[in-house]
Amino acid sequence: MASTSSFHSIAATTSPRAAIPYFPPASYEPSASEQRAPSAKRQRVPQAIKLSPKRNRSHKERFFSGGSPGVRVVDVLNGDVTLDGHDERVLEQTGHRQIRVTIQWPGYPEKLSKDRYIAIQDKDTRTYITREELAKQICEYVAEYMKKARAPPPPKPDRFWTITAADSPKPGITIDNLWLISVAAANKNIWLAELEVLRY
Length: 200
Hints:
The protein is of the alpha+beta class. 13% of the residues lie in helices and 24% in strands. Residues 19-65 are annotated as: Disordered.
C-alpha cells in the first residue's frame, strides 16, 4: 500500500517576474555511486518560461535515489533505478486531477513538442499518483521531446545545448546524459520538468 506522505515536496521560491529563467543554471558533482568519471559534472538546463503571478509557487516535487538528487532518465525508463519514496503518493496538495508538463529547451522552438498531460488522480479510486509513476511518465515525455528535437534541427541552435542522437557522429546532448531533478508549478497548471546534463 502506497503511503501518503510527501517525501521531497518543497516550496518553490522563484519570484513572480515574467520571462525569466525559472531554474537558474547550477552544477552538481556526481557521487561515486553514479559510476561516472571524477571530472564529470551535472549542469542544470536553463529553461525560460513566462511566469504567471497566479501560479502556485508552493508545488514542487523532487526526485532522489540513494539520497542523491536526480535520477537518470534512461534508468527510469528501463526500470534500472529505485527512487527514494518510490511508492509514496505525491501532489495531493495540488487538488488537481491532472497536470500539464512542459520542457523549454534553450535554442529550440517553444512548441517543439506538445505539452504532456499527466493524470495524477485516479478518477475512480481518487488515489494520487506515486512518485515512481510520476517520474516514469515525465521521463517518457522527455524521451519523446529529445527524439523530436533531433530532426529537423532548429534554425539557430545553441551549440552548447544542441540535442543529438546517441549514435550521431556530431557532438551534442543525448538522452543517455540527461537527469530528471524535479517537476514544479510554473504557470497556472503548467509544470516545468527540471533537467540536468552530465558533462565531461
